[in-house]
Amino acid sequence: MKFSTFGQLKQEKGIPSSFRSVKDELRENLIDKLHRKKEIFPGIIGYEDSVIPGLLNAVMSKHNLILLGLRGQAKSRILRALTTLLDDELVCVDGCEINDDPFFPICATCIKRIKEEGDNLPIVYLPKENRYVEKLATPDVTIADIIGDLDPIKAAKHGRDLSAHENIHFGLLPRGHRGIFAINELPDLAPKIQVGLFNVMQEGDIQIKGFPIRLPLDIFLVFSANPEDYTARGKIITPLKDRIGSQITTHYPHTLQNGIAITRQESWVNRNPSASLEIPDFIWEIVENIAFKGRQNKHVDKRSGVSQRLPIACLENALSNAERRTLATEDQKIVPRISDIYASIPAITGKLELEYEGELKGSECIAKELIESAILATFEKYFSDNEFNQIIQWFDLGGEIKVDDQTSSNQYFSAMKSIQGLEKILEAQGIQPKKSLEMTVSMIEFILEGLSGQKHLSRNESRGYFSEAEQTKQEYRETIPPPKSTST
Asked: At what angle do helices 437-453 and 281-296 cross, to 10 degrees?
């Protein structure tokens, strides 16, 4: 039952004997969830045995904490998920800028109102989502933004001393009182602003413009940072780092399965309810493998990393290309092909920070190499070399196929069904053209791209597939200079 006045609340709930801090609240709710075997942070994948145990220990220890990790490692998402450990609602003084507790007020205005209004003081209930305050650190952030400032106009208007609490224009930090205050990219915060956090973290109070204003804030402070930013754009000053109780390091998915699970969860897949969508398993694996290969590629800057946003954006772009093809053809289903992944290169290049040699080659060239290596790694997982002798022989005898990413499934299959040995491989994979022509075509293109990656076939930019021997002959012809003309 909700109450509207302070008197009603006291009559029903009684007066608590002590103040319950937000860190105590988080700790108690976490212990309760652990007792009841509840999922602590839903939607956080791949951190069950690494990041989450350290995070739980920090909460149980009532530590302020920092998450260190490269971009795209769910740092902000984890910090926001901490709100799930808060109470559903919190009683506050109505109209208070810092969500003051009517039983234990710290704001001078609220203290005065309680004395004047007594049991008639109106109260409100603050939902837990509104108890999370987040600030992205930038070099132009000021102490007034974070802590607050004294308003001389308020002082003059009411004839108060300048240092009176009532003159304070509160910054973000005091407005996070009795909640969670997060600062993203902490190294970007100017050193003098970092110094301003010392008192809050250790003594639990703030100072404004040199006036000894005692304001014992109750805040759970959490931060995020990219470890490479310490030298690139700034650093966390040592005294502040010393005051942070726990430092937890995040990481990219350790397994392909975890990466795929994250991409499935985060990508925008169900975008066309009027059309049937089917994504082959090998497409999921290839898209995820692009990120894994990028993190190992010598041309990609390891200090920057390859964000988990890359496979998410790549898959969404590939689906859009497949959707566009479906709208232009008579296909019944949206089924992405390998060519759709190549069409998603614009979603890849902007997410790669390259070393000097990689910059010389170009981001588009590196993206193509990553796609090719991802296709090959996935292809070799699905198939063995001896399965394709008949197909390779068919191309060696002069067979040649030419299609593009906008070719309809019916036209594509008509062009491919003459390939010797292909039908047998499709049967072994459980692929039936009569059941799903679009899925069949996607598998055929996967096979041809895999054989191209193994150098059994060649492929040109216009998506023509032909014998590797024919490619060698063509290259040899191009190296022979034309005969010199002779005059008589």
From this structure: 30
User: Is the distance from CB of 325 to CB of 343 less than 8 angstroms?
Assistant: no
Residue where a domain stops, chosen among 249, 277, 304: 249
Tell how strand 179-184 and strand 219-225 pair up.
parallel
- Residues 327, 453 within the same domain: yes
What distance in Å separates the CA atoms of residue 406 and residue 330, rounded to the nearest whole number?
Answer: 11
Instruction: Name the CA dihedral angle for 361, 367, 368, 372, rounded to a multiple of 10 degrees.
Output: 120
| Cα angle for residues 130, 132, 133 (degrees, 5° grid) | 110
Rounded Cα–Cα distance for residues 404 and 414 (Å): 14
End-to-end alpha-carbon separation of the chain, Å?
A: 111
Q: What is the pTM of this model?
A: 0.85
Residues 344 and 360 in one domain: yes
Please enumerate in sequence order all residues whose Cβ is within 8 A of that of 191, keeping only pairs 6 or more positions apart, or say none.
234, 237
Rounded to 5 degrees, what are φ and ψ at 387?
-75, -15
Q: What is the CA radius of gyration of the chain?
A: 31
Same domain? 228 vs 260: no
Domain that holds residue 220: 6-249
Residue 235 and residue 333 in one domain: no
The one-letter amino acid at 463: R
Gap between the Cα atoms of 449 and 405, Å rounded? 13
Per-residue pLDDT of the chain (488 residues; tens, 9 = 90+): 788 999 999 888 888 888 999 999 999 999 999 999 999 999 999 999 999 999 999 999 999 999 999 989 999 999 999 999 999 999 999 999 899 999 999 888 899 899 999 999 999 999 999 999 999 988 888 888 888 887 777 767 766 666 667 777 888 998 999 999 999 999 988 888 888 888 788 777 777 766 667 788 899 999 999 886 544 456 888 888 899 999 999 999 999 999 999 999 999 998 877 778 999 999 999 999 999 999 999 999 988 889 999 999 999 999 999 999 998 998 889 999 999 999 999 999 999 999 989 899 999 999 999 999 999 999 999 988 778 889 999 988 888 888 888 889 999 999 888 888 888 899 888 888 888 899 999 999 999 999 999 998 888 776 678 876 655 544 444 454 555 555 54
Q: Are residues 71 and 160 in the same domain?
A: yes
